[in-house]
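Crash report, auto-generated. Payload:
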Amino acid sequence: MTDTSAGSTTTINPPATGVGNSVDRPDASAKVLGSFEFSNDLNHERMLWGATIRSPHPSARIVSINVAPALAIPGVAAVVTHHDVPGSPVYGLISHDQPVFASDVVRYQGEPVAAVAADHPDTCRRAMVAVEVVYEVTEPVVDLLTAATAKPVHPDGNVVRRVPIRFGDVDAVGDIVVEGTYEMGMQDQAFMGPESGMAVPAAGDGSIDLYVATQWLHEDRDQVADCLGLARDDVRIHLAGTGGAFGAREDVSFHVHACLLAQHTNRPVKMQYRRDESFLGHVHRHPAHMTYRHHATNDGRLVKVECDIVLDGGAYASSSFAVCGNAARFAAGPYKVPNAVVNASVVRTNNPPCGAMRGFGAVQVCFGHEAQMDKLAAALDMDPLEIRLLNALETGDRLITGQILDGVAPVRECIEAAAAFPLPPISGNDVFDQPGGAGRTADPLAVRRGVGFAVGFKNAAFAEGFVDDTHARCRLENGQVTLWCAAAEVGQGFVTIVRQIAVSTLGTDRVELMRASTADIGSAGSTSASRQTYMSGAAVLKACEEVAEQVRLAIAATHDVAPELVTIEGGRARTIDGRVDVIVADAIADVRFEAELRHMHRETYPLDEETGQGDCDVTWIFAAHRAVVDVDVELGLVKVVEVTTGQDVGVALNPLHVIGQIEGGISQGVGLAVMEEIITDVGLVRNPSFTDYLLPTMVDMPDVRITLIEQPEEGGPFGAKGVGETPSLSSTPAVAAAVRAATGLELTRVPIKPQDIALG
Amino acid sequence: MTVSMPSSVDETLRLLSDDPAATILAGGTDAMVEINYEHRRPASVVSLRRVNELATWSIDGGTVRLGATVPYVEIMNSELAAASPGLAQASRTVGSSQIRNTGTVGGNLATGSPAGDTIPVLAALDAIVEIASVRGIREVAVVDLIVGVKRTVLEPDELIVAIRFPVASGPQEFLKIGPRNAMVISVASCALVINQAERSVACALGSVSPAPLRCGDAEEFAAANIDWTSDGIRITDPRTLETFGSMVADAASPIDDHRSTAAYRKHGIAVMARRALTRATTS
Ligand SMILES: Cc1cc2nc3c(=O)[nH]c(=O)nc-3n(C[C@H](O)[C@H](O)[C@H](O)COP(=O)(O)OP(=O)(O)OC[C@H]3O[C@@H](n4cnc5c(N)ncnc54)[C@H](O)[C@@H]3O)c2cc1C
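Recovered output after restart:
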């Protein structure tokens, strides 16, 4: 026992690494030095390599599959097809509609048809070519607007979901009406570490361990176990070092394939997608077509928003159901909208499957509603800021789902903060400050500056009645804290935040977070929907607090004082008489304190199927962005000069991490505004590489200025809110608005291409 | 895979003669991408890394002789930049620092991509490529070296040794359009070389034709309309600049692909050519 002697107080303070500090990631130096083990570094001395044989066609009937020539190649250990799937032949996040391996038809380019295990990646490559698949090519369905009535792409039909919203007086008419049709192309998450992992069969008992870079271990486990025909406990999923995610690791990719190959060969099997394969092997952001009609009064108050949204879900459902729900619910933006008529649908095509990506349905509609707000402002001769402030949502307002917005909603503060930064000066002569950059194309006489504003919002955590729980366990023993939580660290910083939470509650930085695994604890839910700090952070906090409470009672018992005379605050335990004043973790030795719990946010409810009304959301997150661009109006080249933002963050538990999320999100938003798009041609992906799928480089990245709006969120740990998706919402429309301001063009589609400006 | 590391041109040529199927490796920035993606599975590689004579350059009188493996970074940062500002500017637009530190002009020419950024400049310079094999040396103009998309007249056992072109005698410009502000494959590019001594104008284009493209009519038009004076060149009638731009664009035969459209490429060429001539005649 390490308490202080009677009468004296200790001078030991908890370390300054608790919440509110910009603590470095625990794995930062390992990542910089190259010693961090990413999933593609996994190695096992007996391992085989696995590879996937994929359809080259977006739509075809499989006439025959002959694996014999591949099996004849020396070094090939197994080839598996749909015949070898012992359990459910299909999987999926929400509906199980996607085959582990295609059997009768293929529905998108890159759909898995077979998988091979061999002694070397080169042998795999030879085997892939040797597998004979005879296809009868069929006409693909690729147009999202006609897909609903086209020939069925899938037995489940071509409409994955329709979400109507009818709110208020659907016949209301405003003094002024503006209309517009907007489109968004297909963005890719473009994470740095392609899909990879290793399946290791356990000796003897038929169970299996899968080490994989993923966003949601337990969901993966359930889907994998079902396909393998195993009990869920016989599949153990362990998080492998993850190089980014942004939504693209929510779906199962090679998981079942690797496990099947491991079972067939009884050896560990490693799989690792190549970059081009990765582009075909995960879902993308839904392309969208949106038609809007906004009604307003002559003084600029919104009267009604009407909106038709069609999202292209591609061949399989993935999370389309939920993305469509989001697109519908957030279609009107963070404004007071008394009446709304929204029809959102997500259709099936033979295009690449689409699913989760940062912002999840709210990004698409934000581009639409923000273009409309600018149109309205122009029609009323109002300032774009003024019209937004006039209509800004506040706590207590009713959303178009009928739900009362009861969380903090600093929409006005976000807008004002983004606008408060002084405008940047005219750019200098350095080529990298000019549109066109290194290509040295710019002519200063043709360069115009533009400024644009946008505001966005969405929900955080899962909605519409989803059971969105998380589990955490905290153990304290001899000053050492050990934490278990299956939250997937994908780069967002959960591993840092939970340590800070432990420091702030238990007073020590001797904290170990165990590797996330389904074998050790219940689900933490998905690392998505801006929910892990908010949800699993809260669970860890509660577990730590329970342990602190156990310590408090133990101190009372040990020192023979009434429990209510022992207080715990800021990681310290004190008795009222000052006899004990110690760091919680050090208060009692040789006793193991442990707490495990399940945490769930408040209940949510489904949307009414006819009216789209319902209390379906937990909490909301808001941001505003101002973009300043320089455009070479003759060549259509854009330099995004600066993006300023005010973002609602609840309380920043680690300000540096929050800034990182905001800068990263803005980079993705800028990319979507001016360059990032998966180009398809009759269902075939034309640019599956970083040569042609262009991401912003450091010279494309604008200066970013940030004001964090800190209003504590009830239910979040220490008042924190999710911050991950918010920066992706309105950064894209802000850049688009700025380019419109510079060019005078309508520019109704993102990404804006040089030809849209130069020939527009 | 066998890798040979010869240390002289002669040794390299013998190795290539014995094994013409070998892949020549200079900076590797094209070759390694192809190997990684199995567009190419070489059984043997001949690396030029130790062939020092290929990595040297010289300026002799009015002629630059550029060794095939001089990396871009050196073209940008040595006296070569003054002797050939157009090539230096093209080099600055290639890839990223990592690529410019290792990538070479020899590799750019041997790959022969329509988007190879040095090619328009070298075509406008009437550069001569020195090609060696055990059979001897032959000289080929850049415009004759590349005959189609990634197709050259190089024989399997031939090595590009050096490229020769005149020292700049007048303004040179290189402009390149890409939808990103750095590290981007050209959507269209335009090189302009003005030879004040000879009172000639040369203009060549990138990414708008299968093989290097000179714009003869536009060049003659510009040369005829430039006011050649001893202390600089001027264009008196601004319509000349516009006409030059559209004549250059007329020479282009671009296509629609996933990187851009033919219409935009043609438009971009007209704008770039006009701006290049404007800069050249006002600086
Ligand atoms: C990320 C990235 C960005 C790029 N950006 C650009 C760009 O902006 N602009 C651009 O033009 N290119 C770009 N490239 C392509 C490449 O960098 C250039 O073409 C470069 O000049 C190739 O030179 P290298 O020395 O690396 O050639 P290598 O890859 O070594 O060789 C290329 C080819 O030429 C052959 N070869 C090389 N040297 C000789 C020789 N002396 N004689 C005969 N054959 C030879 C090789 O066998 C091979 O077929 C980029 C490449 C990458 C990977």
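Post-recovery validation: Residues B 23-31, 33, 68, 93-95, 99, 103-104, 106-108, 110-111, 116-117, 154, 159-160, 185 surround flavin-adenine dinucleotide (CB under 6 Å).
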